[in-house]
Amino acid sequence: MNWMEEYRQKLVSPQQAVKHIKSGDWVDYGLLCAQVRVLDEALANRKDELTDVKIMSMLTLSPARIMESDVKGESFIWNSWHFSTLDRRLLDNGTPAYYTPMRYSELPRYIREEIEPIDVSMRQVAPMDKHGYFNFGPQNSHSKAVCDRARIVIVEVNQNQPRCLGGYHEAIHISEVDYIVESDNQPLKELKNPAPSSIDLKVAEYITDEIINGACIQLGIGGMPCAVGSIIADSDLKDLGCHTEMLGDPYLKMYQAGKLTGQRKAVDRGKLTYSFALGSQELYDFIDDNPLCASYPVDYTNRTSIAALNDNLITVNNAIEVDIYGQVSSESLGSRHISGTGGQLDFVLAAYESRGGKAFICLSSCYLDKEGKTKSRIVPTLSPGSIVTDPRTVAHYIVTEYGKFNLKGKTVWQRAEGLINLTHPQFRDELIAAAQKQGIWRRTNKI
Questions:
Q1: 16 and 100: one domain?
Q2: Which end of the chain has the lower number of beta carbons within 10 A, N or C?
Q3: Domains in the chain: how many in total?
Q4: Is the distance from CB of 298 to CB of 104 less than 8 angstroms?
């Protein structure tokens, strides 16, 4: 069948496409590198015609014109499944932006069963192939669930979106699309990984000491997980696997160093399994039309029962704050929202269910606040308002530049002792005093 005729029939201008958005609608804006651009500009020009248009987003990488044109949030209400730096900036500048709590593995089901119907889905896609499919690019995640639930589906074609092979749910057929818009073909946003600090490298060394040949690796976003990837690339480890929600440049580095073969994986043997990719243009070029890489929806990559089938699953993620009971906060500092739960809890659970698996939560022992004062990241109790991302009952290893500590099976006084050992020495006495006051300290402890 010649799908180009249907393509021509559904091709409209951005202005024509956004005319289908009405006041009060719920509109999905795409996530990561799939966030719409020319449709965003066209919708921003309708600001004075609309009210209460509720936008659904996730990990915003480019400033949205609709929010720049409506700083009070009267026409457009910004809602995010996971905050990025730009989402936080909206709040800091006084523009309303709201987080939607979720466990990432459950997000496709939320969309299909739990939330209000989506009126319009708009997202960037790769050019249509000869079979009539638009690939979602490096943003499988929950994209198909959104399109399945939406009343109107609009795709914005970007020639620079890579074609990411599945897996499944990596594409949508033209028969399921209502309108097609051609974009200005801007390059995808790149995530630049900073050079790892000495603290990052020290933490990474503690973690890589626990990795064996044939392990399966999940790395979260941030300097410390990136440092783990760098150290693995330079190590003697071999036959490692990849099963992750985010595929980043550390995996490319490990693959180029010959460390990632996936030959000992129990599921998707030989494949780099991921739900979304974010990194350099080199990474996007690597995943384009590459059968080595398998793009899946997040309810596959992050499902505990699937990820845990891989033996020796090693998961590495960041935290903002950990208290001496072992509660982990990775998404807020007090009531100030930073990011989101994302898939951290999914992979903490999956690693421990995996035979030989280990889940690492890493953080620097201290930081400088806005006044330049040094603060400990390991605290007596989490800051008031801080969200518990990983309960104390599921957290496994906590790692700082001062060492690592396994929480599993430990009493509250053992936890207090082990975690205080991971703090900067200048905070240890006050943390011991707090533990004594909280009734979780034994005088036989020696630090």
A1: yes
A2: N
A3: 2
A4: yes
Asked if 121 contacts 144 with a C-beta cutoff of 8 angstroms, the reply is: no
Q: What is the mean pLDDT of each run of 10 residues along the chain (447 residues)?
A: 91 98 97 97 97 96 94 94 92 90 97 95 98 98 98 98 96 98 95 87 95 96 88 95 97 96 96 97 98 98 98 96 96 87 96 98 92 94 94 97 97 96 96 96 70
Token pair for 408: 């599993």
Strand, helix or coil at 135?
Answer: strand
Looking at residue 324, which CATH number applies to its domain? 3.40.1080.20
Which residues are part of the catalytic machinery? 245
pLDDT at 118: 97
417 lies in some domain: yes
CA distances from 356 to 309, 310, 317, 359 (A): 11, 9, 18, 10
Domain extent for 404: 198-437
Cα(406)–Cα(424) distance, rounded to whole angstroms?
Answer: 18
CA distances from 432 to 373, 374, 397, 447 (A): 21, 18, 21, 10
Say how many C-beta atoms besides its own lie within 10 A of residue 431's C-beta. Answer: 21
Are 235 and 139 part of one and the same domain? no
Query: Which residues are CB-neighbours of 262 under 8 A, at least 6 positions away?
Result: 240, 241, 242, 268, 269, 270, 271, 272
